[in-house]
Amino acid sequence: MKRLLFALVFVLMFGVSTVFAAPFLICDPQANVDEYVLEINGTETSEFASEVDGSVRYDLAALAEGAFTIKAKAGNIWGWSDWSDPLSDTKALPQTPMGLRVSSE
Q: How many CB atoms lie within 10 A of CB 63?
């Protein structure tokens, strides 16, 4: 019984933490990539190192609410790639809860 309870608590905690996890921009692993630059809404980010496999993982939590467009380019000692096709999406916060009430149901 204790194991079942522990497993249930673990699943609930893990499930809740993944539901509220920060969004990340990611791309597939790329060969011969050492670093990336992103362009977010027309503004370039600083250069940052790629993951060990040549992929990118960029935390989008700091983006302001609303529509955004992101492009990326990859670099190594030989230079920079062309810009990727743009990715457009919208960061939308949930609406304020309405209709709160007490019920005996």
A: 15
In whole angstroms, give the CA distance from residue 45 to residue 42: 10
Alpha-carbon 55 to chain mean position: 13
- Both structure tokens of 43: 């503004």
Q: Phi/psi at 51 (nearest 5 deg)?
A: -65, 170
Going 86 to 91 to 92 to 94, the CA torsion angle's sign is: positive
Write down the pLDDT at residue 93: 84
Nearest CA to 75 out of 98, 57, 48 is that of 48
Q: What share of the chain is helix, strand, coil (3-state, %, to 5)?
A: 15, 35, 50
Answer whether residue 100 is part of any domain.
no
Q: Is residue 101 part of a domain?
A: no
- Residue 10: DSSP 8-state: H
Range of the domain at 53: 23-91
> Structure pTM?
0.67
